[in-house]
Amino acid sequence: MRNKVTIGEALRQAHRQIKTTSDSPNLEAQLMLANILGKQRTWVVAHDDVELSPAELKDFQSGIRLRRGGTPLPYIMGRWEFYGRSFRITEEVLIPRPETELLVEEAIDYLRANPGNRTLVDIGTGSGCIGVSIAAEFPSIRVYATDISYNALCLAKENATKLGFSRNMHFFQMDLIFATKGPFDVVCANLPYIPSHDLKGLEVGQWEPHSALDGGTDGLSNIQNLMEDLPRVTKPGSLILMEIGAGMGVACTDLAKKWFPKGKIKIQSDLAGRDRLLNIAL
Ligand SMILES: C[S@@+](CC[C@H](N)C(=O)[O-])C[C@H]1O[C@@H](n2cnc3c(N)ncnc32)[C@H](O)[C@@H]1O
């Protein structure tokens, strides 16, 4: 690309370069350029005759080169939308997924229906997207966010602070919840659940941290370890929400029955009809 190119021209060239890598090359190029220009995507689309500065063009071209090489767009942009907010994202954390919004919605519904219950733990917080999105809805909530990764926790804390919800949030580096006492009204967890063997063949495994994806031999090791410890930190009336992998519903129901025989257990599906959420009401 030469200097003094317009937005429209830059977008057309970008489309040609990433159309074999990306399923939605137009959208991705528009989002990337909007992020560089500090504008909304709709502004970019409506201003295709505006000329880019050399610095803007250079940034855009290097982003497009990365995208062409396969780097996921959120890592190039350094941020991603989740539940209506923009979270800073680095390659140290999982890219927040839209299907995880189901867990957030369930937690919010429970907290609205039970106004006295305001203590929540978000286990494996990563970017903080689950804990921050819930904290944003309830000024009096206390959210404890844990992660085994120190760098993930730093990013979660940064997101909570930038979005204005750090007052109600506390961050702890630990394995699951082993060093907490509880009891918690709501337990949220989106822990790694991809079977190690499957991960080798998946594109996500090439870009996103294995510590955020690898669920051991059958994908259930984190879920199983957490479940064993949950009776210690929950009480009658608590709600447990754990994101699970497609096809894990039966195994997770069996686990839940073992540790919470009196619990009301259900598996909820995502929009694609796949097992996505283990919901245990105590
Ligand atoms: C699937 S990612 C989820 C991140 C974020 N909650 C989300 O929904 O996008 C799993 C997270 O769990 C963390 N993790 C993995 N094993 C853990 C463990 N034993 N204890 C605490 N956190 C763990 C990883 O570092 C990672 O941040």
List the helices and strands and how they pair.
Elements: H1 7-18, H2 25-37, H3 41-46, H4 54-68, H5 73-77, E1 79-82, E2 85-88, H6 101-113, E3 119-123, H7 129-135, E4 142-147, H8 150-163, E5 169-173, E6 186-189, H9 196-201, H10 204-207, H11 221-233, E7 239-243, H12 249-259, E8 264-269, E9 275-281
Parallel strand pairs: 3-4, 3-6, 4-5, 6-7
Antiparallel strand pairs: 1-2, 7-9, 8-9
Helix pairs in contact: 1-2, 1-4, 2-4, 6-7, 11-12
Short summary of the structure?
With 282 residues, the protein is α/β, with parallel strands linked by helices. It folds into 2 domains: 7-77, Ubiquitin-associated (UBA) domain (Helicase, Ruva Protein, domain 3), CATH 1.10.8.10; 92-281, Rossmann fold, CATH 3.40.50.
Could you list some keywords that capture this structure?
binds S-adenosylmethionine, Rossmann fold, seven-stranded mixed β-sheet, 16% strand, 282 residues, alpha/beta, single chain, Helicase, Ruva Protein, domain 3, two-stranded antiparallel sheet, 9 strands
